[in-house]
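Name: p-loop containing nucleoside triphosphate hydrolase protein
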Amino acid sequence: MGREIVIGLVGKPSSGKSTTLNALTDANAKIGAFPFTTIDPNKATGYLEVDCACKRFGLEASCKPTYGYCKHGKRGVPIMLLDVAGLVPNAHLGRGLGNKFLSDLTEADCLIHIVDVSGTTDSEGKATRGYDPLQDIEWLQDEIFRWILGNLKERWGSVVRKHVGTKSTTLETLRAQLGGYYANKNLIAKCLDDIPNLPALQHWDEEMIETVVRSFMKHKFPTVLAMNKMDHPDSDKNVSKIILRYPDSKCVLTSSITEILLRKLAAQKYIKYEPGTEFVDTKDDLPDEDLKPLDDKLRNRIENIRDLVLYRFGSTGTVQLLQTATELLQLIPVYTVRNIHNYTGASGSEVFRNCLLVKKGTPVISVARKVMGDVTIAAIETVGGVRVGEEDTVDVNKNDILSFRIVPGSHN
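Structure predicted for p-loop containing nucleoside triphosphate hydrolase protein:
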């Protein structure tokens, strides 16, 4: 059936991790029921905003998701977030909640690293001025690297002996060693493919083991850098420095505290706000709307937010965080419907009730298994009732609306 995709949020104290988590798991958005079977204390449901399929067919008025929400064709698809605690230097040696932090991390398919780019908090989150946030990024990567490397080297002698004795392939041996990090065969194969002229495993020296671990990290923990507190005067120079050092990284500029404030003001009916955009309207802008009038203090505050954050950066960046993480993971929203001609479910006239996130290139039969379980599939159809082969794959706007017909009596 496959497990849920998990996105891990990491960051030192006072970097804005809790605020970002609150913005991504906005309680106001929890309209549908709960899609996840188990929610641990450090797990939460985030909402990935996508253009809903209802928009393609002009069916926005009839769209009512079972999970998440759909507002005017903008759909919030639930996704599992993991709040990884205990981020302190030397976590790999067990300092602080080090072991818990690192073992929690293994479940993540992707990391969002909340970095305080204002430089106003030191490595332990204490107030300062002029701290270099580059250190936080390097430190986190190094911590994970030393942990995986340490685990592997600790038993390397016996790993090599077993490898030679059983005549295993490099892939089989590494799968046995790295499988505990929720890494499947495909992921480990990609790590090895990335390394040119890879010698036989029994001939790896220390440098080669380190190269393999770094390749594994790249595939196992792709990371989005959330450059938080972007509106602070010291942030610009730090952002430039980070982008120069990590030109291939996915970076998103954010102000999570601004996002929380805007959502709060919208809930209190002081403003009309569309998350993920620069659009904020007040009673001054929309006199006919049911909005509360502003006092001077609040009016100035909103003007400052518009000038320093929204108009300058285009948004607060928080909605874009999950979108960037899912792009890194190549996830696509796939809609499963009972009736392929009108897109309704088992009953009623509501459309596109169910949506799940699937890796681009996944065969449609795998989607069927995830949704239907172990039943005999008679036919798979897409838009217009077109038949789809079991091994056909899902892509953006292709085979992303599916209907499964099962052989009667094949349910367990």
